Description:
By secondary structure, this protein is α/β, with parallel strands linked by helices. It has one domain (5-278): Rossmann fold, CATH 3.40.50. The protein has helices at 18-33, 54-64, 80-92, 151-155, 169-179, 194-204, 240-250, 263-273, and strands at residues 5-8, 37-42, 74-75, 96-99, 127-130, 136-141, 145-150, 158-161, 184-188, 211-215. The strands form 4 sheets. A 3-stranded parallel beta sheet has the order 1-2-3, covered by helices on one side. It has a 3-stranded antiparallel beta sheet with strand order 4-5-8. A two-stranded antiparallel sheet has the order 6-7. α1 links the parallel β1 and β2. α5 packs across α6. The two termini are 37 Å apart. The mean pLDDT is 93.
Amino acid sequence: xxxxxxxxxxxxxxxxxxxxxxxxxxxxxxxxxxxxxxxxxxxxxxxxxxxxxxxxxxxxxxxxxxxxxxxxxxxxxxxxxxxxxxxxxxxxxxxxxxxxxxxxxxxxxxxxxxxxxxxxxxxxxxxxxxxxxxxxxxxxxxxxxxxxxxxxxxxxxxxxxxxxxxxxxxxxxxxxxxxxxxxxxxxxxxxxxxxxxxxxxxxxxxxxxxxxxxxxxxxxxxxxxxxxxxxxxxxxxxxxxxxxxxxxxxxxxxxxxxxxxxxxxxxxxxxxxxxxxxxxxxxx
Length: 284
């Protein structure tokens, strides 16, 4: 085993669709090719949006495609005290502050209206935001190459705990990646804009920065990104080898011979052949 630790971290808002399978497969192959650990985390932090049945369905879909993880599944709902501790740490260090701004008052990049408000001037309900100044954030993405952001212009102060009391995705994912020792994050390019937020947050918490690989997104016939919000069809479990072959093709990987008809044999060949350099930077 190497010191590589990767993860697949779906939200249980519905079954996996083909785009989700592409992400899971890319993360799995990258970890296994480097003889690393591959973890499964269910990001169940938003009950109003979640499906009770989704976690078990996602597990069934992954197992049907031979994508077996190491160790126990981490469910984020079990980690609430750790998130609360980190929010309090950020407040004490003045890296975070309460904000009662409504959505109507907020531009795409938050201008910091509540930064210097006296505490007694903040009304309920309020969120907590991370303070972002003039940080320059950059990564050498393993697929996209060099990507950089200006903290003040591109990111702005962002929410780490919502007005409804739920912890934000940006906070939870950073805290859990550190907790699980994740070294490499492989995910879709739709989450690229989350990367500078997560890097800034990790830095303020004293966490090391993982490596990133953002693969291209899968689009439907209508030109929209496949997503649960657009009611993308769940992955069909009747022919997992066909699904895996389609996903490998999408990721630009060498084809597995037709003579290999079983899932485990196909994955073993795909792990051996995995080449990040072949992943296209975009798909039209």
